[in-house]
Fold:
Amino acid sequence: MKKEPLVDCCSFLHLHEDALHKVLGEMPPDETLYDLAELFKVFGDSTRIKILYALFEAELCVCDIAQLVGVSQTAISHQLRVLKNAKLVKFRRDGKTVFYSLADDHVRRIIGQGMEHIQES
Amino acid sequence: MKKEPLVDCCSFLHLHEDALHKVLGEMPPDETLYDLAELFKVFGDSTRIKILYALFEAELCVCDIAQLVGVSQTAISHQLRVLKNAKLVKFRRDGKTVFYSLADDHVRRIIGQGMEHIQES
DNA sequence: TGAACATATGATTATCTGTTCATATATTAT
DNA sequence: ATAATATATGAACAGATAATCATATGTTCA
Structure:
């Protein structure tokens, strides 16, 4: 991830030098880490979390989501776009109505792990 | 989560009314969802993701983290505070040096699930 | 005690984000 | 074709956020 040589910044460095090189070796490429942060950023908004939670139970149309979440249709639409770009939700059109649903099970698992964490604290 | 009665916003609502009430029933309280978003917000920054990833392998002192991540000591310190507040990392002091490590296994699992998601796309 | 080192904190600033408002697109029914 | 409905999009603004700089705290050693 970082190519520059390591400086002996604090007296403990030499004790951990092998560990440091292991870290450097196993660190995913910067781009991957950036993408990962981008993904979690999507989960980092309560409106989007509510949308995802609502979709846990059922496929829902935009106006239903808006009501459940208690936010304007416009705001929901913007947020659904974010979720769509992150491939967290998919959609199908039926006449005038568009139905959204969870894209896959990662959403459930990620939110589940997060929930576990905050409930232990 | 939302107490107001549901409006018949689109023609599909009645088809899903039971699903909607199931959603409303199983939705965690607003405060929980807010906390959940706050947690994921912490994962939603590449500097913090890098810090957490570095701590996957080993307990590290601040200056080592700064070098590995390639960011100033000050910036790392600010971010470590965020991670600490979210109970994602813990620390111990040894003389002048402070060593940080992962607080528990949720960090690994959450990042692992995220990684799976981005690598499938 | 004072100098050197490791880390933390506060203020500032530039950038990013989410909502709102106005409007556009798409579909259906009359 | 026109109106009505469901959703999407663009611009703009307010609030949040992360890095930087200056400085403070805490620890060790001479």
Q: What stands out?
A: Chain B touches chain A through 70 residues (CB under 8 Å). DSSP finds six helices and three strands in chain B. Chain B has a mean pLDDT of 89.
